[in-house]
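Predict the assembly for these two chains.
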Amino acid sequence: MERNQMHRQVSVMRQSLFDQGYLDEQFIQLEELQDDANPNFVEEVVTLYYRDSSRLILSIDQALERNPLDFNKLDTYMHQFKGSSTSIGAKKVKAECTQFREYCKAGNGEGCMRTFQQVKKEYTILKRKLEAYFQQARQVGPSETACRPRN
Amino acid sequence: MTPAIEGMAPAVESSEGSNKMSKGYQYPSLKKKLRGLVVDNAELCRIVEKGIMGLCGVETQAVETGEAAVELIASGATFDLIVIDRFLPSMTGPQTARKMREMGVESKIIGLFASYFEGDEEEFVAAGVDDFKEKPLSPNWLVPILRELDN
């Protein structure tokens, strides 16, 4: 009984991440890649994302402190960051990244700085939500979040 | 069959053998054994892109630089589909595509952007790619390409 309740809780958490626009269908792609051979694939990929992105964020923060700003460098960093964010389905983060790139292209330093605060904010919110989700999902069992049928 | 997870369409195993359908993605049943190459500097992107290509029936290798891709081809490896990220550490995506064409590679080459603005594709197109796409690498656009290659 209790297990069913926990299972339902995980599903509700998961669904709300999509409904509230934090994740897009790319996250479902990750779930498609999770199976018995890779039972923790999604969490591993997301962990990798947060590990690698933290370095990029630091680089962008440092680059934003320069005077004058090197928009090409900023753009390159952000391109990488957006690529990773897109790959895990981080919808809101991705949207802020696009905005950042628009300011870069326009040479708008203030716009870049403001938007990057938003990027970091969304990034952190998503991190907390995903951590909570994975924690719950782990209690239910990793195979519950795989969506491909087992052969 | 996997029990339906609330909020998600149940994964359905089609009666057509290796066709798998889940959440609207129809993974193709390919006649040929297609080989793919992903060139992306980000580990996360390599993992996810390689995985998705695999789900779509493409035996895929992933390398992190243009140089590594060129070396692989120089050693005799052949691919049906090559996907190259725009930003690579030293040899850029377009430079890599150009080099491949110079080496006589006739495979389908797709230039991939983490973030695309109109006009970004010029370098890639000039280098001889067949098409360019914005990430994520999605079955939505990948599968039609694979079906074409399969014929």
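Chain B has one domain: 35-150. The CA atoms of residues 21 and 132 of chain B lie 26 Å apart.
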